[in-house]
Structures are given as C-alpha cells and as structure tokens.
Amino acid sequence: MVTNVEALPVMSIFDTFLNWKVFVQTLPLLLSGLTTTLTLGVTAIVLGFIGGLILALLRLYASSPLRQIAVAYIDIFRSIPILVLLVVIYYALPFVGLRLSPFGAAASALSLVSAAYSAEIFRAGIEAVPRGQFEAARALGLSPWRRMSDVVLPQALRIVIPPITSNSINVMKDTALASVVAMPDLLKQATQAQALAANPTPLISAAIIYILILMPLVRLVGVFEKRLAVRGR
Amino acid sequence: MMRPIIEMKNVVKSFGVFKALHGVDLRVGEGEIVVVIGPSGSGKSTLIRCINQLEEHNDGEIIVDGAEVGRGRKSTVLTEVGMVFQSFNLFPHMTVLRNVALGPVRVRGLSWGAAEERAQRLLTRVGLEDHVEKYPAQLSGGQQQRVGIARALAMEPKVLLFDEPTSALDPEMVGEVLDVMQQLAKTGVTMVVVTHEMGFARKVADRVVFMDGGRIVEEGPPDEIFNSPRDPRLRSFLQAVLSH
C-alpha cells in the first residue's frame, strides 16, 4: 500500500495523459472508431443536405398545407436537443415497433436535425439570389423546375458554401453524441480504451484526432468566406 | 391596322393601395415598333411587365397572339414574348454562349449543339463573336446588354419587350445598344420599347405612346407626338426631357 501511494506522484503528466505505449496499444481501436464516426458524419451530412434542400423548396414554394408542415418541421427540429432526439429514437421508438440499430438511430437523429438547419441555410441562399435572375429565367419561358435547377440553385449553392460547411462541422462534432446509444464511434472507443488501459491517454488522442479532422474544414470556411467577400465587391 | 399581336383591354394593376395602371387599352400590330415614354412612375414598366406576366394584372384582358394570358391561366404563348431588362439580368454562372443557348435548349427542345450554333450566330450579329466564352462579369455594360438582346432573340420570339434597356448604361455605351435595336427593328420583329431615349423614339418608332399617372395619355406617330403634342402633360414632359 505504502509503495503505491509513494509511486503516484512519480507518474508524470506525460505518463498519465500522453502515454506513448498506451497510445500505440489503443490506436487501432481509436481508428476503428474514427471510421464509424466518419461514416456516420458523412451519412448525416449528405442526408441532411438533401433533406434541407427539399424542405427549403417546400417552405418557399409549396402551397399552404405542405409549406406549413415544412415550417413546423424546421422549427421543431431546430429546437430539440440532438441528444434528446437520439434517446427518443433509440429507446422510445421500439415501444411503437420501430427498432433501429445504434447507427440507424444516430444517423436518423443527426440527419433530421441537420436537414432543419440546412433548410434555413438554403432558404437564405435562394433568397439572396437577385430577383432579376428569377424574372429573366421566367421571361425566357423556363419551367419552374428549370428556373431552379439551371438558374437559381447554382447561384444559391455558391452563396451557401460557407454556412453549409459550418453546419457540416457541427454535424461531425455531434456524432460524438452517438456514444450514448452504444455506437462504437471515436468517442465511445476512446472511453472504452481508457477503461481498458486505466489511463486517459486515449481520450486525449481522440481529442487530437477530432481536431486534426475538423480543423482543415474550419480553415476552409474562412477561405470560402474571404473569396466570397472579394467576389461580392 | 395589321393583325394585332398584343391587345390590352382596360388593364388594371395595383400594388397594394397604389394603382399603377388605371385601365389601359393598347393594341400592338404584328411587326410594329411601339415606343412607350413618360415620366418615372407613370406605369410604363408595369405595362410591359404585365404583357409577359412578370406582373399579374388585377383586371382587364391581355391577349397575346390570340391567347389570353394571366389571371391564373397557364399559357405557353408567353414563350413567344422575349424581354430585355434594364439591369441585363444575365446568368452570372454561365458563359455568354450558354446564356444565349439555354432558352432554346430548355424551352424549344434544341440540342446543345444546335442551340450553341444559333447563339454563335446571334452573338456575331450583335458584334460579340470574340466574347462567347467569357462570363457576363467580364463584359462592359453595353456588351452585357447586347448579350441580353441575343438571349431574347434566341427564342425567336414574335414580340420583344425592352424595359429601359439603356438606363443602366454609361453614356458612351448607349449608342452601341441602340444601334443593335435599330437594326433589329428592320427585321420585322414586333417591339415594345420603354425608354427615355427620345432620339430613338423619333427615329425608330412606328408609334409613340405617352403614359402619365398609370394611363395612356396620348399616342400617335412620332412626328405628331414630338412636333405637335396636344396634351399639356405631354408638352411639359417633352419640354423637360428635350430642353437640354
């Protein structure tokens, strides 16, 4: 007992938080978690993008009942905490006969919320396209669908690149919430590894991996914004 | 009179409480060049924007090439009406060639090859054969407006509407656009032109329409309108625009 107590102060901050041996041992586990995280994140980003675009078009151009449904959807899913939604989907839906895998539940929760945020971003982007563009497309005789796909959306998408990238970063970060439904994502694997190794190094490693993955994206947003500001002048 | 291609009967257009058109009657014959003049806010732009339904009129009738338009009707006849805008409204994300070829492909069903050939021909006609692969932002205002005219022409419309086509241009570029329009007038296409260019109206118009306060106050051949105006509002308008 006595030796143990005396041994503790000897353990340096490096042995505790940045232990190389533990790092090397747990890295494969972390990398498998990273794969899951990236798969989940990309799935949610893509589905959220498509869903958001559809919601934005419904909100702007659909007739009354559909438009109101879109507005209600956007408001509700922007208000609900993702963690709550995730728990509801994973733990409550089975009671009504809908049982989703951890991945399915996490991907659904993240996509549903991301779609709501993306919808507002797309709406702002479409509304930022000058009115003259809509009029020129109409005067040319383009169908409503062609006006969107050929004229409005290509311009709107360029406008929304920075905020959509920002939203994608948020989605990527929110994938960590999936660990509460036993999804073996990067964070879950890190806490698992921490328990196995009795050492917090894997957590620090996970933090560094998150930063390494997301920081280039964060920088990219800055580059886009700068470029857009130059073009806008 | 020639067969009418546009007939407006008692057309009313309001924006909220503001009445922009107080029951306007106008007939434009096939091949006719009608120039609409008048002070700003007189309803000139609203008038031609109602013809192609960029503004939906609240009352009255608008018949284009024999088919009534607007008030909920879905009509394909409006593809026979081309429009040139004050602020050009070219599509900034497309090359000049693509701007002109888009309509024929999407609306007339031409192949890209055929449409681009047509676009090339029209761009040559407006003197822009060296700029087809550029983007609109790389062109001067006058060049952009000539692309706008080529884009409208590419649809081979029966009627061309011009909404103050030179008002957004620097003075030295007005001439090149008016030249193109003047050439166009000789080809037999029907044109309705809203403009402040009195010289153009005098030279090119078959008929000049003077609007004030949302009404057509006086109309007639340019000689009559400019040399012996009857209505005092037209007289004071001409005095104001021609005095300097």
UniProtKB/TrEMBL annotation, chain A:
GO terms for cellular component: ATP-binding cassette (ABC) transporter complex. It holds the Pfam family BPD_transp_1. One of its GO terms (molecular function) is transmembrane transporter activity. It is found in: Cell inner membrane; Cell membrane. GO terms for biological process: amino acid transport. The keyword Glycoprotein does not apply. It comes from the Bacteria. Residues 34-222 form the ABC transmembrane type-1 domain. CDD domains: TM_PBP2. Keywords: Amino-acid transport, Cell membrane, Membrane, Transmembrane, Transmembrane helix, Transport. Gene3D superfamilies: MetI-like (1.10.3720.10). Signal peptide: none annotated. The keyword Transcription does not apply. InterPro entries: AA_ABC_transptr_permease_3TM, ArtM/GltK/GlnP/TcyL/YhdX-like, MetI-like, MetI-like_sf. The chain crosses the membrane at residues 38-58, 70-93, 203-224. It is a multi-pass membrane protein. Belongs to the binding-protein-dependent transport system permease family. HisMQ subfamily. The complex is composed of two ATP-binding proteins (GltL), two transmembrane proteins (GltJ and GltK) and a solute-binding protein (GltI). Part of the binding-protein-dependent transport system for glutamine; probably responsible for the translocation of the substrate across the membrane. This is Glutamate/aspartate import permease protein GltK. It comes from Microvirga subterranea. The lineage of its organism: Bacteria, Pseudomonadati, Pseudomonadota, Alphaproteobacteria, Hyphomicrobiales.
TrEMBL record, chain B:
Its main location: membrane. Gene3D superfamilies: P-loop containing nucleotide triphosphate hydrolases. GO terms for cellular component: plasma membrane. Keywords: Amino-acid transport, ATP-binding, Cell membrane, Membrane, Nucleotide-binding, Transport. It is found in: Cell membrane. PROSITE patterns: ABC_TRANSPORTER_1, ABC_TRANSPORTER_2. GO terms for molecular function: ABC-type amino acid transporter activity; ATP binding; ATP hydrolysis activity. Residues 6-238 form the ABC transporter domain. It is a peripheral membrane protein. Signal peptide: none annotated. InterPro entries: AAA+_ATPase, ABC_ATPase_HisP-typ, ABC_transporter-like_ATP-bd, ABC_transporter-like_CS, MetN_ABC_transporter-like, P-loop_NTPase. Belongs to the ABC transporter superfamily. This is Polar amino acid transport system ATP-binding protein/general L-amino acid transport system ATP-binding protein.
